[in-house]
Structure formats: C-alpha cells, structure tokens
Amino acid sequence: xxxxxxxxxxxxxxxxxxxxxxxxxxxxxxxxxxxxxxxxxxxxxxxxxxxxxxxxxxxxxxxxxxxxxxxxxxxxxxxxxxxxxxxxxxxxxxxxxxxxxxxxxxxxxxxxxxxxxxxxxxxxxxxxxxxxxxxxxxxxxxxxxxxxxxxxxxxxxxxxxxxxxxxxxxxxxxxxxxxxxxxxxxxxxxxxxxxxxxxxxxxxxxxxxxxxxxxxxxxxxxxxxxxxxxxxxxxxxxxxxxxxxxxxxxxxxxxxxxxxxxxxxxxxxxxxxxxxxxxxxxxxxxxxxxxxxxxxxxxxxxxxxxxxxxxxxxxxxxxxxxxxxxxxxxxxxxxxxxxxxxxxxxxxxxxxxxxxxxxxxxxxxxxxxxxxxxxxxxxxxxxxxxxxxxxxxxxxxxxxxxxxxxxxxxxxxxxxxxxxxxxxxxxxxxxxxxxxxxxxxxxxxxxxxxxxxxxxxxxxxxxxxxxxxxxxxxxxxxxxxxxxxxxxxxxxxxxxxxxxxxxxxxxxxxxxxxxxxxxxxxxxxxxxxxxxxxxxxxxxxxxxxxxxxxxx
Length: 552
Fold this sequence. Notes:
Blueprint: H1 6-26, H2 36-61, H3 65-77, H4 89-107, H5 110-115, H6 117-124, H7 126-142, H8 147-156, H9 163-172, H10 176-206, H11 211-240, H12 246-268, H13 272-286, H14 293-320, H15 324-329, H16 331-352, H17 361-369, H18 375-382, H19 391-409, H20 413-419, H21 427-454, H22 460-487, H23 489-516, H24 522-538
C-alpha cells in the first residue's frame, strides 16, 4: 500500500484527538449537570480549534481548505457521533449563510457586476430553473423516484458554491471578469434556488402545481427579498454616514446582514438570502462613502473573519453529517444524480452563457467544471421532513453530489485551469520571484553561518571563504532582480507598492503598541493611525493626506 505523505499521516493521527476533544467537551454531564449553553459553547470552541488546525495543515498540503474540513469532519464521524451536536437547516441558513453571502456581496465591485449582469442573470435565474427541470427529469427516469420528488432534488442541488474555486482564482491570477461571473452567479442563484425549492416542496406535499401561480410566487418572493435588502442597505448606509465610530459602524453592518435576512424571511415571507445579497451590494456601493478609512479596514477584516468562521463550520458540518453506510446503500442513485448534475450544468453553461457580452470557450469550460455544490444544498437537504417521499435517498444523493464536487471537481480545478490556458505565467514575474526567494534564502544562510562563526562552531578561515561566496551569490540575485524591474515598469511599481504597504502596516502595528503601552494618548493614536489607514485605503502610499476624512 502506498504510504501517506508525512503531513497526511499527521492529519490522520490527529483525528482521534479531535474526536476526543469534542466528545470530551460534550461529556461533562458525567461529572455534573452542565447547562446546554455551556455544552454548545464547548462544541463550538472545539470545532473552531479544529478549523484553525485544518487551515494550517491544508496550507502546507496545498489543498483547498474546504476539502480538508470536509475530510476531517467525515473522519470525526468514524469515531462515533458527537453528542449534543444537532444540525438544523436554520443553523445554516439563518446563522451561517448570511455572513458568507454578505461578505461576498459587500466586496463585489458594482461596476463589474453591472457589466456582466446579463450573463450572470441568465445563469442564476433561467439557469436554476433549467437545472431543476433537467436534473429532475433525469433522476425521475434513471433512479426510479417520483417526478415531484425528483424535481425537488433538482432544485435542491441547483445552487452553486464556488468558495474554493474563487480562492483558487485569486491565488492563480485568473481573469477578473471570470471571477466576477462565477461569484455573481453564486450570489444570485442561492436565493433563486431556495425559492424554486420551496415551490417544488409545495408540489411534493400537495401533488398540485399551478404554473402561473408558481411564476407569480417566484417573482413575489425573489423580488420582495431584493427590495427588502436594497431598502435596508440604503437606510443603514445613510445612518453609517452620520456616525464616526468604527465599532458602531461595524455593528450596524452586522445588524444589516442578519436583520435583512430575518425581516425578509420571517416577518414578510420573502427570500431572506436574496435580501442579504441586495443588502450587501447596496451597502458595498453606498456604505464606504460614509466610512472613514479606519472603519473600512475594520469592517473588511471583520467580515473576512466572519466568512472564515461560517465557511469553517459549514464544511465541517458537511463532513460530520455524512453517513457512509447510507451513501453506500444509495450508491447507484448517487451515481445517476452526479451524472444528472454534470449534464444539467453543461447544458446551462454552454446554452445560456452567450447572453450579453460573450465569453470565450475556455471560460465556459471553467464555469462548467467549477459549478460546485455546498452550503445551500446541505441546508435544503437537512430541511427535508419525514413526510417527504424518498427522503433518505434524496439526502444521500445530495450529500453524494456535494462530496463529488468538493473532492473531485475542486481538487482537479487547478490542473484543469492550467490545461485551459487561463493561467499565463509571466516570465519576468517568475524570474523576479525566483531571484527574490533565492536572495532571501542566501541571506538567511549568511546570517546563520555568521552566528555559528561567532559561537566558535565554524573557523574564521572557513567562514571567510564561505562568506565571500554567499555575498557574491546574493549580489548576483540582486543584479538579476534589478535587471527584471528595469525592463518591466509594471512589476517595478508593484514591488514598490508592496514595500510601501508593508512599511505602513509596520507603522500601524508600532502605533498600536505605543498606545497600549500608554506612551501616546488616544487622540494622538487615532490621528496617526487614521493617516496611515487613509494611505492604505486610497492607494496613495507615498503622499496621502495626513488626516482622516470621510471618503466622498
């Protein structure tokens, strides 16, 4: 048998420890009565620790973070069920999905979204309906499931979740427009898929479906959600513009994200997810105009962390909810479901992506293979009640599809993009990065050997010879870097901006240390940090105005 790589062996060895941590935290009632709140807190802290450790390991293994979470979650279930861990659809939809959707919508460039809106809408609205119909019909004829239940499954897996794909795009320098399309599609099709799912659920429970009534309800629920989110986003943005306190402003964005969902979903009865999408887009468009530079940095960091937490819990939950015996028992149906999803995705992408400004065939290939499934499919599968026909089989098929997209499509996405020719590596950049890394390594070696010489572990004669050689190599790397920068003004400017940006970060960190050490007072700290933040936000890293001011 082929041996696991050392990091993988370490990951496997840690699984019993993770399981012991969670079951041990939850098993407190053997010692005494512990409140449910404390038990829940212990489980959450245990999962958060696991998420942090998995993030460290996956970074070293160079695999998608989400895939690592699913695998670890599944591995934990092999050691037994975790007590007191009850996953409900509301935990995912009402607690974990809003930060994911809001963070992505808030940072999505409105101009980019508007320019690509025709193709995004075609994939997110007609594409969801087409996917529901195609997957439903295919599963109906192949897996022996009733037509209403098959259409319900089609809606359940219609929404895409490109978290790991977008992260890969950013790391590999994929075209910006392609990233906007796949992210914009995911934002909008989450809400439309839930609306279609609820219509299909009504079809399953009543056995009746009125097309005109269904279309009317679709536009009411979807349009109502967008309207609630838009109004909420504009109102909160106006309020933020009248406040100059980054903690309060960050709190208001949190109220907006969750308040839009709760208001739309539970008070008005329209789409909560689409309300969060619209709230995030409107707040991202209007909110920053009234935010100080410091507030924008704090808000961005806060929502990045919130999205990290939500992603961590969602994909761990996917792994924890997997029942291997149920998957094996429904393997044929899962195979048909995967095939149906792939066919529907191909028809949707290649058939509808011509709308608006056309996109190249290579982009369509990536859109097809990057149609992963995740949080929304998991939540909708868990929401199926016992009175739904073929409930266990539908849930097994949903989990099978999610696992396939995460473990097969996600892991193969990087070589797929390279074969598609979407990631072009600039020779000048490669040379610069190579010489930069080589110079850093040589300087580290020089410093280490100098210390050994001072400690008497290397003779002066040998040190003098090695020192001259290393200095010569360092000089050669520096010369090559200089040559590359002289012929590539764009790369030279980028390197300069990176250096200036790092210098500003060091200044900010130092000012924070001075403030916490009571060397400078709050007024001086706020004034100096605001000036640094303004330079970081504005991009004018060298000059910039030395006072914080409202943007716009």
